[in-house]
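Subject: mismatched residue count in predicted assembly?

I count 1093 residues in my input, but I want to confirm that the predicted structure covers every chain. Input:
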Amino acid sequence: MELNANNQKFVNESLKKGFRVDGRGIYDLRNLKIDLGNQYGSVEVQLGETRVHAKTSIELARPLPDRPSEGIFIISVDFSGPGSLQQGEKVSGPASGVAAGSDAEGRAAAQEVAISRLLEKILKSTRVVDVESLCISVGEQVWRLRVDVHFLDYGGNYLDAGIIAAVSSLSHFRRPEVLKVGETTTIYSVEERAPVPLSINNIPACLTFAYFENELLVLDPSYLEEKFMSGSISIAINSNSELCCISKAGGIAIEPDTVNLCIVVAIEKAKFLIDAIRSALK
Amino acid sequence: MTSKQDLFVVPGMEIDLGLITGIKDENSQTENSEESAVILGPGLFEKNSKILSFAAGNIATNFKDTIWVNYNKKRYIPEVSESIIGTVVARTAEGYKVDIGSAQPANLNGLSFENATKRNRPNLSVGTIVYAKVVLSNKYIEPEIECFNRNTGKADGYGELEDGFVIKASLGYCFKLFKGTALILELLGNHIAYELAVGLNGFVWVKAGSPETTILVANAIKNAEHLSESDCALMVKQLVSFL
Amino acid sequence: MSSESGPISKGIVTTGSLITRDGVFMKGHGTFVENGEIYASITGTVERINKLVSVTSLRQRYSGEIGDIVVGRISRVGLKRWLVNVNGRQDARRKSASDELQMRKFFKEGDVVFAEVQSVFVDGALSLHTRSLDYGKLRNGVVCYVSPALVVRSRSHLISLHCGVDVVLGVNGCIHIGKHRVFSHLQVDSDNDEAYLKDEQSSLESNTKAGNSSTLPNNDYSDIYSDVNDDIDISTRTNISRVHNCIVILDRLFIRLNSTSINTAYEQSLQYFVPELLKQDVANEIAESRDNKNSAMTFKLLVNSVAYGILSRTDDLSAQRYTIE
Amino acid sequence: MLIFSEYLGLRIDGRRANELRKITCKTNVIDYTDGSAYFEQGNTKILVGILGPREAKQRSASQTTQVTLNVEFLVSPFSSVERKKRSKYDRRSVEIATSIKQTFEHVIIGQLFPRSQIDIFIHLLQQDGGVLEACINATCLALIDAGIPMTDYVCAINAGYVDDSPMLDLNMVEEASFDTPNITIAVLIRSGKICLLQLESTLAVDLLAPVLELAKTGCKYIHSVLDSTIKESTQSMINSVTL
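Triage response: the counts match. Full output below for your records.
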């Protein structure tokens, strides 16, 4: 309900003077809370007001015909209920340039598709989970790993919170141990043998910047900033500081060196996020 | 207005009307035998001759004939003569549609502004915010709001709000702020000059000299909702030190 | 005057190219200003009228001006107005004071209307009026769409070809080709009663404003608004479709439409059957033979340099459509 | 082994590292559209039709103060090796359509056409890598042909690293091969600003800058091709009209 022209003008005015509406610095992340659930692989992440829950589960399956030696890694994203982006989208106005009614829902639905596709791309392109390690016996039996990401409360910047939740959940998850002796493969139930962690190659972190008129940048946009931004760029960096994914689709055009600036800041902040995830999992 | 021990009710609890008389007896000592008509305020409803509460909150009465429940909610139900802050959502032929956080957007007639005539009427664009008063609210038709005081014809505060920043708060907190009894307002007032407009529909409009002071005031008010008075003073001292 | 003003580009400019840096110029249609410099926002030729710089393009949708004569089709009747689709940025509006039922007696959905632009709204919608003799409903014919740039804003928009066919050139690129409309009986009856002529020709609201109730034109004048197409004999029908195909060829080859170009194209097309007209080779022939002196249009050079694949009316998007030279 | 031969440095289709595939394009190819373009980049063939700006059809779009853009991206079943009927709403098509809509939303000068909509129909006839880039170039051409005011040309290209040397304009084989990181970039020609940037594989940070530079020169070349096509077709129109 705070989408009105006054707030839009106020957000822009204060950004010009280097102030953010929630008092943060330009490159400050909101405070991050990662709570591990009682089950392996169930994690809830709170980034400022944004709350996401991720759950990893596994089951046996036949491998895909064209990739007999690889396990299957599925990411499913769910926005239903309070977390959906349609909340509070009713209000129109020059602020979001969006008319009330279906158009707002249309725009929100497209945003949800964009977020889930990006989340999938980042997790797949950075090869967080080594799919070869999920193979039990080539061509017959593989593990089918599935991460469910539920977005619970929309406080802005779902993508970064979603990545943190998914990655923490994958690292925290334990699968039943498998012993392969010659032809016979025995799968120990959780009671018999302690479950084994997945082989995680590296932990990526995603940093999203929102930008406003004449190249004003802010990291980790909050609800209001995300509604009034003129565009955003998301940069995913893995644990050995390599670029894994960049997505800048739409919004006003920006200078190339603004992109480089974002990358430099992203590398710095990615280290911080990855350490936060690692310390939470100890 | 509330009796010494606040009687806390939960939804579905039966209220016996003796409460009004009971409280009244303590103060006025007059015996009130015959059945006087009782007005049920928000939070209460009548079901086969029993009064039940549908809200969780404290019972309150005005000792004469009305009894209601003070309960906190976020979804605003328009009540006549309440001041609210709304956002213009659409322009209609005779005025504007204003979103005030209730089920349906309210109608604001183009002429219901201080000295507005058929020819010179204020020209609000979509997205501007207005401070207005609810003049018509009933279950079946869209609420009606106005931006001027009907009897004096003056705006006295109502009308378009320029610039400033709007924050969302729960209705109960806004009610407290509206009455002006909240300590946080004075504490901030000692240090910063700021303008404030409180809408009973859960919006507070703040405007101070510069963006950073407006941010400070807005965040202070937002955080003070659940702080005790001493913590409020502490918080303000800390915030002000940053200036 | 241009000596002391800064350099200004001439001829064809494409989107985004700089026109002039000099602050003295004002930006006109088809341009935009970015930190003091004027850039072209569309592709076309630069036109400078002393201080005003604008870019005119041949490929833009029709955006109306006051006084334009347009041909359109009624798309909706309601809310005290007729909505006319004139292939413009917004549907044109034609106000009427009477209620819907009465309005349908004059124009209803699907009628082809011939009107003049009265005013242009800020969002590009036009308001039309039919307040002079030859405006109103067009019948007994066919409409075809050409690009608006080809129709020149001239006084005479009604061309009567000697083969008994009327061509109404709408500035918005809609052209109505129909049976010749005989005006005689109209003049005779109505000249004795000036008020009456004004009444049924002029738009309704001026009528009601004048106080007298909107008298419904009695039936013998209803043919002005009747939408019954009277039966047309075969020869006129073929003439109508011949002229139609000629206009389609002219549009394909992007040749300006005026009485001369249509007449000459019509004469050249006489040697062919009407359906043949739309075949590419026949069209080229017509174009070549059009090389007569008075129209000074050397088709020959034109057709060879621009080989358009011409869509034959009957079949769908045939493969020939995408042959690229 | 993607490099055809080591010492010659030729790629699998015989091109050098910074060579683009042959681009042929043509405007005004469909009659009943306001603007249309046929664009071929190597074996990727795209047809774009533009209708608009015209009266907004859906109710909601007719309220806005800006033009509403809607983009439909259709893949023809015969477009790639195996015939597959893809619906307009499968995820990849929706994603490409939204990327194009977002890219052009800020380039088209939308305030000139309030309450109107522009429809862009993109038809992928044949695909051989670089689909999103070719769609952007084709749409830019069609928009200019339709005379829709824009602030600049938008040219797009993909580039990447094959056997760790930067390559321009990757075809399907190069794009899909395992270890080639590739980026897609759309650039505003005049200001050199970046409209769209997508990287979907791991790439060392310092390798990004050179590939960005290479891609920008590629875009400049594409711009020259598009520009000459537009100039040619405008010139021929002017000739035939003024004749």
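Residues 165 and 179 of chain C are 5 Å apart (CA to CA). Marking this ticket as 'not a bug'.
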